[in-house]
Design goal:
By secondary structure, this protein is mainly alpha-helical. It contains three helices and no strands. The radius of gyration is 14 Å and the shape is elongated. It starts with a helix and ends with a helix.
Amino acid sequence: MNYITLTGLTAPACTTFSFLLQAIRTIQTKDTSGISFYIYSLFAFGILLWFLYEICSSNWPIIFVNGITFVFRLQYLGIK
């Protein structure tokens, strides 16, 4: 595995993991008072666009990570 591939896999893993912990806490506590619905919706839409772009590019590791991120964003927005 070269450093470009490693970077490409590490970046989305870090961003997904960083929000995963917050998403789990929000799901458990149901407290979304500090979250802007509109900004978070825009972020979720951006993740969806990345997900669709990667499907068209057939970049499966990134598709997987962005898919997980998008699912957690939807759960977060559902609670909000």
